From TrEMBL:
SUPFAM superfamilies: OmpA-like, TSP type-3 repeat. Residues 496-519 are annotated as: Disordered. This is OmpA family protein. Pfam families: DUF5723, OmpA, TSP_3. Residues 1-23 form the signal peptide.
Length: 716
């Protein structure tokens, strides 16, 4: 039988794959993880719950595969037979895995409310191979040389790389708009390669003929490594040399928080300025998205050798050989070039965190590989989905991740953070209770956390205790957190009381109501606060005692009726005296309270006026006409607002000019007599018409007598 080591090395070297998108499973969901937060999303450290976090040392290691499953409890009882009794699951795309992540001395500093900075050191090792034919691995202990066998390996790819990182992260709050809060972060990493080995083969097959003891191989195989092969063909010298490549990497991430109760986390200082309570979580829902491990390790000091595997040869050629020696000794070297750059395992991470109730959270996480599995010298992850319930406080967090990992299956773990100590596993519980464990991880470490101060507000008045002059009793910031006094105990605080030392109602701004006019009616109830008046009239006077207060009385010194607004109506014609032009004589409203001159009255006036006699050729009224004038005056006095024309007329004897002058003189003589006897002058207008308007013929003595007349006519 030929050596199993040689054969398996040709087809399965580096049979491993990085399992987890993140190390420290469970810890990275914790808001108090501090500097560890940058590993999954650099935005995590902005608005951190820690002022300062110093990681001393932390180690996370995991292994997994989809080929072999064992009972983890056997490790503690029958360790030697643990893998002998294990179940195997050979497939054409089996993988085995190992990953180690060491977080060295690192520090995170919260610069201010907006920004945070982290500096970290990290050592990482990824052992990564895909598409291994599990049927080859079934040949435990080697192959029977008396039996034929055939293996179709197809394409195989994998790498084993170890490197160190020195990184810096800057994160900042991008949006703080009440309910909506967004932060972003970026990490830049300098990479130092410490060793790298990789395989990349295509169309690889092996056929063994037991009769001829010859093995036929096909395909091509890239084999790259750093360092030189020693005399025994050992590749161990490929690791630990600081000449094994340099590179740069980066991570970028964003975190959105929904803060429906954001107002309760904003507190006040004694001067009224706001201060955010940075010591507590403020979100109801948090969503994070990040992409990690952009970059490459370049200028690797090593060789990439491409071999042609198309050959038939004796199996004896491989006895005792390790891979590098077997390839060099037994196959055609097609090319020998510089090692290919190592591409980091770029991955997308999404994270949702729900604050259920105080200190209890539920986290949903997805890690998805962006890198190709079937490429030369590229690291990659397996897709992983997990749900992690946790209890979280400043000094203690407990979490239990439950998830599915591509190719490995169900995993259930537990972990805790107790002050400076953290430890846990993403798979310990499923490994302990399961009988077919395909993966296991563990982590532990020490740090020095310095937490943000939690702002306390004992009296719930919004002012933090250390800025509150009365921390036990709620009060406004305007009074330095103390309640306003009510010195006069009138129910109105001094700050709102215009008379803080004298009780008064709120309606008067805390002052007692005055009685300005001293009438016993307070100003608030006094319709005439500056003039004394009885209570019955709400403090207003009623001088004439007619029941109508002076300010509403049109005749405040003369009693009157309500319908006439306090004024009398002497003549009873429904028009108040103040509006009645004839207050002592009843008359219609349409004539301003005065009687109207009727046609009968008009006729009577002219009947009297035409009997007025004058001296011949003169304007002098004869004595016998005085009685008629008195009658006319009586009629005119009955209509005090009526206006009249006093018209003079003559016969045709004499010239027109003399007749005109005589008619005017006689009209004025009558007007003057009436005015002299008390008729208002503005009521009378004198007009002379001469001989222009005869009412009879001037041819007879009787006609001439009628034409010599005076008329008094109403001006309408």
């Amino acid at each position: 039988m030929f050596s199993k080591n040689t054969f398996l090395g040709m087809v399965c070297l580096l049979s491993a794959s990085m399992l987890s998108a993140q190390s420290y499973q469970g810890l990275l969901t914790d808001n108090y993880s501090g500097v560890h937060g940058v590993l999954s999303n650099p935005a995590n450290i902005a608005d951190s719950r820690l002022k300062l976090d110093v990681n001393l040392i932390g180690v996370s290691a995991l292994y997994g595969n989809n080929y072999i499953g064992f009972n983890f409890s056997d490790v503690f009882s029958e360790y030697s037979s643990t893998f002998d009794d294990a179940n195997t699951y050979p497939k054409t795309d089996n993988f085995l895995s190992f990953n180690i992540d060491v977080l060295g001395p690192s520090v995170m500093l919260s610069i201010n409310e907006k920004s945070s900075l982290a500096i970290f050191t990290r050592g990482r090792g990824l052992f990564n191979v895909d598409h291994v034919n599990g049927n080859t691995l079934e040949k435990e202990g080697g192959f029977d040389e008396t039996e034929d066998f055939s293996v179709v390996e197809g394409n195989i790819s994998g790498s084993f790389s170890v490197w160190g990182e020195i990184g810096a992260t800057y994160a900042r709050v991008l949006l703080d708009n009440g309910q909506h809060f967004l932060k972003g972060g970026v990490s830049a990493k300098m990479l130092q390669g410490l060793g790298n080995v990789y395989l990349y083969g295509s169309d690889i097959t092996l056929d063994y003929d037991s009769n001829t003891r010859e093995i036929t191989t096909t395909g091509q195989l890239h084999h790259g490594s750093t360092g030189e092969v020693n005399d025994e063909g050992n590749i161990g010298d490929a690791f630990g040399d600081f000449k094994n490549g340099l590179g740069f990497g980066s991570d970028i991430g964003f975190v959105y928080e929904w803060r429906p109760d954001h107002a309760e986390y904003t507190k006040l200082k004694g001067d009224g300025s706001t201060i955010m309570n940075r010591g507590v979580n403020k979100y109801k829902l948090k969503v994070g998205v990040s992409v990690t491990d952009f970059g490459k390790i370049t200028d690797i000091d090593g060789r990439d050798r491409l071999y042609n595997l198309n050959r038939t040869q004796s199996i004896d050629n491989f006895d005792g050989d390790v891979l590098e020696e077997a390839l060099l000794d037994n196959f055609e070297l097609i090319s020998d070039t510089k090692s290919k750059d190592y591409t980091l395992p770029t991955a997308l991470h999404t994270n949702l965190d729900w604050s259920i109730i105080s200190k209890f959270y539920l986290n949903v996480n997805a890690d998805i590989s962006i890198a190709s599995k079937n490429s030369r010298n590229i690291g990659h992850i397996l897709d992983q989905y997990s749900i992690t319930p946790r209890y979280e406080s400043a000094w203690l967090s407990v979490y239990s991740p439950i998830g599915i990992m591509d190719g490995v299956g169900f995993q259930w773990g537990a972990g805790l953070r107790l002050g400076p100590l953290y430890m846990g596993s993403g798979s310990i519980l499923s490994s302990l209770i399961g009988e077919d464990t395909k993966g296991l991880d563990l982590y532990a470490g020490l740090k020095i956390p310095v937490y943000q101060n939690k702002l306390k507000d004992k009296d719930k008045d919004g002012i933090v205790n250390k800025e509150d002059s009365c921390p036990e009793v709620a009060g406004p910031v305007e009074n330095k957190g103390c309640p306003w006094p009510d010195t006069d105990e009138d129910g109105l605080l001094d700050k709102d009381d215009n008379c803080p030392n004298e009780a008064g109602p709120e309606e008067n701004n805390g002052c007692p109501w005055p009685d300005t006019d001293g009438d016993g009616v307070l100003d608030k109830d006094d319709d005439c606060p500056n003039t004394p008046g009885p209570v019955a009239h709400r403090g207003c006077p009623d001088t004439d005692g007619d029941g109508i207060i002076d300010q509403d009385d049109r005749c405040p010194e003369t009693p009157g009726s309500i319908e006439h607004k306090g004024c009398p109506d002497t003549d009873g014609d429904t028009l108040a005296d103040i509006d009645d032009e004839c207050p002592t004589i009843a008359g219609p409203v349409s004539n301003k309270g005065c009687p109207e001159v009727t046609q009968e009255v008009q006729k009577q006036l002219n009947d009297y006026a035409r009997t007025i006699l004058f001296d011949t050729g003169k304007a002098t009224i004869k004595t016998e006409s005085v009685a008629v004038m008195v009658d006319i005056i009586q009629i005119l006095n009955e209509y005090p607002n009526a206006k009249f024309t006093v018209e003079g007329h003559t016969d045709s004897v004499g010239s027109n000019d003399s007749n005109q002058k005589l008619s005017e003189a006689r009209a004025n003589s009558v007007r003057d007599f009436l005015i002299d006897k008390g008729i208002a002058g503005n009521r009378l207008t004198a007009i002379g018409y001469g001989e222009e308007k005869p009412i009879a013929s001037n041819a007879t003595s009787a006609g001439k007598k009628q034409n010599r007349r005076v008329e008094i006519n109403l001006i309408k």
